[in-house]
Design goal:
Strands 6-3-10-9 form a 4-stranded mixed sheet, with no helix packed on it. Strands 5-4-7-8 form a 4-stranded antiparallel sheet. A two-stranded antiparallel ribbon has the order 1-2. It is α+β, with helices and mostly antiparallel strands. Helix content is about 15%, strand content about 20%.
């Protein structure tokens, strides 16, 4: 026999019949999996469960990039509330500065946890969030509330990558599923400077069963009809995947209020363009109109607010440059894309 063969014989004699536990402990992982049935198998050895480990966690899918709509107040169409003193706050129900008006509605606390594509929390990032009031109007833009800045705020992510805002439940206005807009920045300084790049622009979708409960209460009557005319599958923002990565998890009730949570996976090195071409003419007001016809060439009748009845005519903009492709083109003149 060769020296190697003698060593093997000696080893076999030494370990012969020491039992299954010893055998499993000395096997290679691949050999053990073959003997006990492959991936997913497990056996009991002296009361201890030995199982196969699952596959390595795959990288998270990045949350979709969505339109900021025509009412972001992020400097992309003239108004920039991000640079104002008082915008960094968690309670966004009231205006700050020269007005202290408070938006009425069912209480909603919403949290966004920002993680990278490896599911690690991004600490020290910032999130700017905004949404419409219970009538479907946006502060700083819609007729009657251009002097208000409520339902807008910026927060810095904590040690878990989370920001939390105290707000009210948004309306469902014509042509759109109820939603909350948000922009992610790499730092609070970038979010409030007016010049920092946007890492991600996206939206939170509200679950239908929760919206039904809220819209049955006083003050939300317009939303009942609007919600009945749209679904996640037909919404022009969420419709391509029914908000697969944008649908919030919501708990709570009408009396105590609701808590909504969303985890947003982003590429920290990404950058995106902000907002869209603003409406021209009078300040936004009016209910959304139908999308422009295909024959329109230079002007389009468009709404400039989701809740009133007047409309504004403005030239349709050309395509907006994007540093990262959007799922589909969004346009300020098409209210069904807000």
């Amino acid at each position: 026999m060769t020296e190697q063969e003698l060593d093997n014989v000696a080893y076999v004699r030494e370990v012969h019949d020491k039992g299954l536990a010893f055998d499993l402990g000395t096997m290679s992982r691949r050999r053990m999996l073959t003997l006990i049935g492959g991936a997913g198998a497990a056996v009991m050895v002296t009361g201890t469960l030995i199982g196969t480990a699952g596959p390595a966690a795959a990288a998270l899918e990045e949350i979709e990039s969505e339109t900021a709509g025509p009412y972001p107040a992020d400097g992309s169409n003239g108004i920039d509330v991000r640079t104002e003193s008082g915008i960094v706050r968690s309670d966004i129900r009231s205006s700050f500065g020269t007005s202290t008006a408070t938006a009425e509605g069912i209480p909603l606390t919403f949290s966004i946890t920002v993680v990278d594509l490896a599911d690690a929390p991004i600490v020290g990032a910032a999130v700017y969030a905004w949404h419409c009031d219970r009538d479907g109007n946006y502060s700083l833009y819609s007729t009657g509330i251009t002097g208000e800045n409520y339902l807008r705020g910026i927060q810095e992510t904590d040690s878990t990558g989370t920001v939390t805002f105290t707000s009210i439940f948004p309306a469902c206005y014509s042509g759109r599923w109820p939603h909350i807009h948000f922009e992610v920045y790499s730092s609070l300084a970038n979010a409030t400077s007016g010049a920092g790049p946007i890492v991600k622009t996206s939206q939170i979708a509200i679950p239908e069963e929760v919206a039904d409960l809220v819209y049955a209460t006083d003050g939300y009557s317009r939303s009942v009809t609007n919600l009945s005319q749209v679904s996640l599958a037909t919404d022009n923002v969420f419709g391509d995947d029914s908000a697969a990565r944008e649908l919030a998890t919501v708990t709570g009730g009408v009396e105590a209020g609701f808590v909504a949570r969303l985890t947003a996976a982003v590429d920290p090195s990404g950058t995106e363009e902000s907002g869209g071409t603003p409406p021209s003419g009078a300040p936004p007001s009016g209910a959304p109109s139908a999308p422009p016809s295909a024959s329109a060439s230079t002007s389009t009748a468009a709404s400039t607010s989701p809740s009133a009845t007047a409309s504004t005519t403005a030239a349709a903009p050309g395509p907006q440059p994007r540093q990262r492709p959007r799922k589909k083109e969004r346009h300020w003149w098409n209210p069904f894309t807000w």
